[in-house]
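Recap quiz, item 2
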Amino acid sequence: MAVTICTNPFNPYEVLQAYEASLLQSLGSIGATSLFIGTMRDFNEGDHVKGMTLEYYPGMTEKQLDKILIDAQNQWALIDSLVVHRVGDIFPKEPIVLVAVWSSHRGDAFDACRFIMEALKSKAPFWKKELLVNQQERWVAKNSDGYQSS
Amino acid sequence: MAVTICTNPFNPYEVLQAYEASLLQSLGSIGATSLFIGTMRDFNEGDHVKGMTLEYYPGMTEKQLDKILIDAQNQWALIDSLVVHRVGDIFPKEPIVLVAVWSSHRGDAFDACRFIMEALKSKAPFWKKELLVNQQERWVAKNSDGYQSS
Amino acid sequence: MSIKVRYFASLKESIGRSEDELIFTGPLTVYDVWQQTNPDKDRPNQVLVAVNMDYVDWDNLVKDEDEVAFFPPVTGG
Amino acid sequence: MSIKVRYFASLKESIGRSEDELIFTGPLTVYDVWQQTNPDKDRPNQVLVAVNMDYVDWDNLVKDEDEVAFFPPVTGG
């Protein structure tokens, strides 16, 4: 179980390969890996977005993310789980968040990955400020419900 | 949209990086990537499993997987989707299947990825024969329901 | 008229063949195909049928040069 | 007794400060903390509160050396 906040761009696939190397002992019992990557779009609420600054609450953010992973481990039969989240200045196409869940069976992996992502979206103290193409800045007001289709 | 059947081991993270390179044009509109990797366990139904042979129906398997991806694209607002599936002789810890879905919003990505995986499990003609540690062989009789927790 | 019949996985093993070629005249359902190629075997439970690589029911009619496949529940993924 | 008060994101910008130090005597709720540090501002809608990095309600009592944080709905991920 690991939570990482990073100030620099990260490659989720490299992170995953490195992390899975640490799971070698339990690898034979892993049947399902459910992953989610959130990436910065260049368009939001009808406007072109040039970049974004992600503020967080050092200490509380990690504490809340740890709690979410523990919650997930308590609800489903998981082997391991991981959250990586960017902060600071972010540009379109860059990964913002990676959630990874490893388990024996796919139902648990799917449910837990989505649960972690929704809990992160509603409880982990991060705040996005968008920089629009016209140089205007705006705070993102609220996260949408991820259990709804678009 | 792509379906690949492979007879050799594949690294899902390398496959994903290569495939995303082909998505460069739409990368700015991708906000959510939902991934599922199914891996071979060394234990099933109470027995240690040494290896497995995956049989398929060349032509029909690809046709059914294509249909599943088109179905998903029709039901959710997706940017792209991908399925990679192993056949032939497989050993514990090796990836069996990769499902990837790219979309603007996470609800669509999560729903579609899981839908594709469940449809694959019930409709794509693949059959697993397990080789147990005691040299016994057995066909896996039926896939479980992936919408249930374990 | 001629159709190709294919068997997969555990069904292929229990039948002992992977293919049959069936020559016939007149209308024929998938179930008739099964009876003519496996006269000694009842229609098996839980066996799936595809004609030309699409799932069909046992009462589906087959036509010249169709490929009919019988196989057990799928277990991929 | 002394508590540290922190503000984040758009709330920090609208208040114009990122921190306050509040010296007090006697029992104090989170809401009292808000009123004493921002006497000219009503309790804002949709602002979340944490004490020592855990979410709490506005009627939660604070104690010496607590860290109280006010911030808008979170928008990570």
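Residues 30-37 of chain D form the longest helix (8 residues).
Residues 2-71 of chain D form a domain with the Ubiquitin-like (UB roll) fold (CATH 3.10.20.30).
End of item.
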